[in-house]
Specification:
The structure is a single chain. The model has no long low-confidence stretch (mean pLDDT 92). The protein is built from five helices and four strands. It is an alpha+beta fold. The protein has a two-stranded antiparallel sheet. A two-stranded antiparallel ribbon has the order 3-4. Bound molecules: zinc ion. Zinc ion binds next to loops.
Length: 183
């Protein structure tokens, strides 16, 4: 079993698996009714095999928010933080300020598939690496400050354009102005 990352606040471990609590927004002990109520307020989680993307599609359609704000709204889709928001929208060439309700079904399906793949890879890797490794290099060799295309980058790691950033949904959004043109 892999040792916990430095930012882990709590690890619950059995003989073959461990559950790590990283950067929680709140700590709270809940009874069964509380757990059911909490889960009922969450959108589908892309990391779960039984996640229903149709629920996220419907939630997205019902929100007046910008896409970038909707993505980190846990009632729309669960589990997406600021790194996945920035990198998944970049990968899909979607501008974060675009209205969430304006996504076509094809664009949404691509975004959902991107989130599932990106988040699943991060679980396997134990860290978030979204850049494609250059030839002869593996993802695990990529240093932390080179591991993302636009998140906390001065320039886009794919095309070199200066990354733009602004507050969206209470967090800093990042985008490449060339590959994610404003709608
Ligand atoms: Zn770019």
């Amino acid at each position: 079993m892999r040792p916990p990352l430095p930012q882990v606040r709590l690890r619950l471990a059995g003989a073959t698996a461990a559950w790590d609590l990283i950067a929680p927004a709140t700590y709270e002990l809940l009874d069964h009714a509380g757990v059911a109520g909490l889960l009922g307020r969450l959108g589908p989680d892309p990391l779960r095999e039984d996640a229903d993307p149709n629920r996220a599609w419907a939630n997205r359609n019902a929100t007046p928010s910008a896409l970038g704000a909707a993505l980190i709204d846990q009632s729309v889709i669960a589990g997406i933080g600021n790194v996945f928001r920035a990198e998944a929208l970049f990968a899909c060439r979607l501008h974060p300020s675009r209205p969430a309700a304006s996504l076509t079904r094809a664009e949404f399906d691509r975004l959902w598939a991107t989130l599932c793949a990106m988040m699943g890879r991060a679980v396997d890797d134990g860290r978030i690496v979204t850049v494609d490794p250059s030839a002869g290099r593996s993802r695990t060799d990529i240093p932390e400050d080179e591991a993302r295309y636009v998140y906390k980058q001065a320039c886009c790691r794919r095309c070199g354009a200066p990354v733009v950033s602004w507050i969206l949904g209470g967090r800093i959004a990042y985008a490449c102005p060339v590959e994610q043109p404003a709608a």
